[in-house]
Amino acid sequence: MKKRTLSGYLLFTPFGLLYALFLIYPLIQGFRMAFYEWDLFSEPKFIGFENFLTMFNDSTFWSSLWNTIYFVILTVPFLVILGFLIALLLNAKIYFRRIFRVMFFFPYILSITIVCSTWAFLYQPQFGIISKIFRAIGINYTGWLTNPNTAMPAIALTTIWWTLGFNVILYLAGLQEISPTIYEAATIDGANSFQKTFFITLPLLKRTHALVLVLQTIASLQIFGQVYIMTGGGPYGKTRVLIQYIYDQGFRYFKMGYAQAMALFFFVIMFIVGIIQFRLTLGGGSDKS
Amino acid sequence: MKKSKLLTWIAIIIIVIYVFPIFWMIISSFKSDLEILTQKVFPSKLNFGNYTYIFKQSGVLNWLLNSTFVSLISTFGVVIITVLAAYSLGRLKYPGNKFLFYITLAGIMIPLQAIMIPRYLLLRDLNLLNKYWGLIIPYMVNPMFVLIVSQFFKGIPNEFEEAARIDGAGELYILFRIMVPLAKPSLVAIAVFSFVSTWNDFLWPLIVMTDQKMYTLPVGLATFYGSYTMKYGVTMAGNVIAALPIFIFFMIFQEQLIQGLTVGGLKE
Q: Could you tell me if A92 lies within 8 Å of chain B, comparing CB atoms?
């Protein structure tokens, strides 16, 4: 018994140490830093809540927060609904089903740089193919990434394309857990395929809908790379998102304390969404085991 | 059991539209600058100029090696560390076991973006900025992985363990000879997932590596493209080069990767 106790601690140690050093310590330090004026060159100076006051009075902070939320609104519903519909299609009795699934999932594992530079090329005003297609049908619009009104939707479309496969996979996993006998019973009762989808599949996937919705919201709130690569936050700051603003304040202007105050704010948002996720995935009844 | 032709056709149309950006990326990488400017759909001949250009003009090869090294080592490390911790949490009973489990569980709630600045300062104090280890070691801690694998260990029936214990086997023997082989699917899944997400990570290497030679592929290419905005043929060639290793990896491990995603609902 004693020996097993020792083994237990010893085996946990490598993870425990790294966990304490790279997650817990930065987290605690992050809470402290937000109350300091902290650049890389001089001694940190305690300033109380001043960083938070600055933050609440900083219109760029609010616009970055809004742009982040706007991005969530533009991406999450599509990713959930399209994910469901495409999973339905790829779960149906069709030819080449396996190949289709693999092809659909592939973009998800491409790195952000590949995805964004390829889409920047598609959106390119003079010789991008999207502009060319639109010109062919009589719409002479080319400012996808340069017009303040379409820049964020364009980034959202790229993101949807990039990550949709992930949600499709989650939905496919959910679909496979539904027992075929339920459909057989419904067929005997004379239900058509639309009724079966709407009244059986949709409600039975409640847990998957919730999971996809929350995971997707978490992922979308963290948006940074797409904007960094495709627009740099422009035009006119219309695509500047919260993480980018934190990154800029911290690593370009070295306002570490201020950036950390905003990071704390971000942490609180993520924490709330995380609690919801926790309740949906690990707490309560599980249909996984 | 009849397969639907109509649905197959719908799927084909959607897939064709869906993979078009990848098709366009590949085909454009073989076009000359003029063919891109004039918006020709197909290049008149396969032109490898963009590829030779990219290998001559930049540190692409260097970045490729950095990415490979960092992803392989951190994946190896995360699997070992995860297996040890997961066995401790999932199979061994000792005072504090529950407490450590909940601490680990809490870890999945910490987003990297919220702690990137103090982490950066920590690495600076440890003199690990611009070093491979500064990038690699933080990737080795993943509370989510530990939870997934410990759940897997918990599900293994006691009989296997009991038999080995009667024969006098020690913890490490039980772990590596009995538990690990039985939990292999989950371990392969986290390894594959770790490799792909490390390979593709953007934010963390962007912060840790400031010397261009130390960039990983995604960060390196992003800066490289930034300075050659109009050279789209070259950009697409770079994308193809960057996508190729991950494509091959994907072809080999797609099943494990998909399994890994569905096991834990992982999303970065």
A: yes
* pLDDT in the model for residue A30: 94
Of B106, B115, B180, which Cα lies nearest the Cα of B143?
Answer: B106
The beta-carbon neighbor of A22 closest among B2, B24, B141 is B141
Q: Which of residues 67-106 of B touch A (CB under 8 A)?
A: 80-82, 84-85, 87-89, 92-97, 100, 103-105
| Those residues with Cβ within 8 angstroms of residue B178's Cβ, 6 or more apart along the chain or in another chain | B156, B160, B161, B164, B169
State whether residue A239 is helix, strand or coil. coil
| For B145, nearest residue in chain A (alpha carbons) | A15
Cβ count near B137 (within 10 Å): 19
Distance from CA of A176 to the nearest CA of B (A): 12
Contacts of A122 in chain B (CB under 8 A): 21, 24
State phi, psi for A36 to the nearest 5 degrees: -120, 155
- Mean pLDDT for each consecutive 10-residue tract of chain B (268 residues)? 83 94 94 82 84 82 93 96 95 92 90 94 94 95 93 87 84 88 88 90 93 92 79 90 89 81 57
Diameter over CA atoms, chain B: 76
Q: How far apart are CA B256 and CA A198, in angstroms?
A: 31
Q: For residue range A120-151, what is the model confidence (pLDDT) as tens digits?
A: 999 988 888 898 888 889 888 888 999 999 99
Please report, as a single letter, which amino acid is at residue A208.
T
CB within 8 Å: A26 and B119: yes
**In this complex, is the C-beta atom of B217 within 8 Å of any C-beta atom belonging to chain A?**
yes
Amino acid at A253: Y
**What is d(CA A85, CA A104) in angstroms, rounded to the nearest whole number?**
13
Give the model confidence (pLDDT) of A224-268 as tens digits: 999 999 998 889 999 999 999 999 999 999 999 999 999 999 999
Q: Where are the alpha helices (DSSP H) in B29-91?
A: 33-37, 49-57, 60-91
How distant is the Cα of B236 from the closest Cα of chain A, in angstroms? 7
Measured between CA atoms, how close is A289 to chain B, in angstroms?
9
What span, in angstroms and rounded, lies between the C-alpha atoms of B193 and B75? 9
Whether residue A220 contacts residue A72, with contact meaning beta carbons closer than 8 Å, is answered with yes
Q: What is the pTM of this model?
A: 0.91
The answer, for A118 touching chain B at a CB cutoff of 8 Å, is yes
Distance CA A217, CA A68 (A): 11
From CA B166, how far away is CA A48, in angstroms rounded? 61
Asked if the Cβ–Cβ distance from A15 to B219 is below 8 Å, we say no
Q: Is B222 on the interface with A (CB under 8 A)?
A: yes
